[in-house]
Amino acid sequence: MIIKTVKGNTPKIGEDCFIAENATIVGEVTMGNQCSVWYNAVIRGDVHYIKMGNKVNIQDGAVIHATYKKSPTTIGNNVSVGHNAIVHGCTLHDNVLVGMGSIIMDDCVVESNSIIAAGAVLTKGTHVSAGSIFAGMPAKKIKDISPELSNGEINRIAENYILYSSWFKE
Fold first, then answer.
1. Distance (Å) of CA 126 to CA 7, 67, 107
2. Residue 167 to residue 77: CA distance in whole angstroms
3. 24 has which bridge partners?
4. Measured between alpha carbons, how far is 165 from 120 in angstroms, rounded to an integer?
């Protein structure tokens, strides 16, 4: 793994986290407990801060970045960022699922208990209200999330990634 200090800012990693051997975490990054950062993922806090809560998983190939002096990135608790997703200069509240290959641009806000579908592109400044599912390019609301989907997908995936990461800590 590459964990590097940039401009005097060293990443702060919480307890019981798994960081893959080829993941990269640099600069002003704060990560909560029980997080996982998977293979080839990059969390680059060089131009602005990146804050992540507890039980966040950043899956293989995902990129978390920000915009210089303008848009930091804040990720709440119990958030899954799918394979090859890009999360850039935005805010993700608690219990959010970011689908594989999706892109969330600067100044977007994704409220709690929401799903961003695989391949969706949230253009700059998009606001996702709590309990919504957004899909498409550009992404639009397609429906409200059901409690079954919230538990069946958002919580299941976050909990599964805590289990998966335990296999790599043995």
1. 31, 16, 7
2. 22
3. 2, 42
4. 26
Q: How many CA atoms lie within 13 A of 62 on its CB side?
A: 27
- Single-letter amino acid code for the residue at 43: I
Question: Cα(153)–Cα(129) distance, rounded to whole angstroms?
Answer: 18
Question: pLDDT at residue 166 above 80?
Answer: yes
Euclidean distance between CA atoms 91 and 48, whole angstroms: 13
The DSSP bridge pattern shows strands 42-52 and 24-31 to be: parallel
pTM above 0.85?
Answer: yes
- SS3 of residue 59 by DSSP: coil
Tell me the per-residue pLDDT of 76-97, one tens digit each, with 9 for 90 and over. Answer: 999 999 999 999 999 999 999 9
pLDDT (0 to 100) of residue 1 = 87
| CA 157 from centre of chain | 13
Nearest Cα residue to 44 out of 23, 59, 60: 23
Q: Are strands 91-92 and 86-88 parallel, antiparallel or unpaired?
A: unpaired
CA 24 to the chain's CA centroid: 14
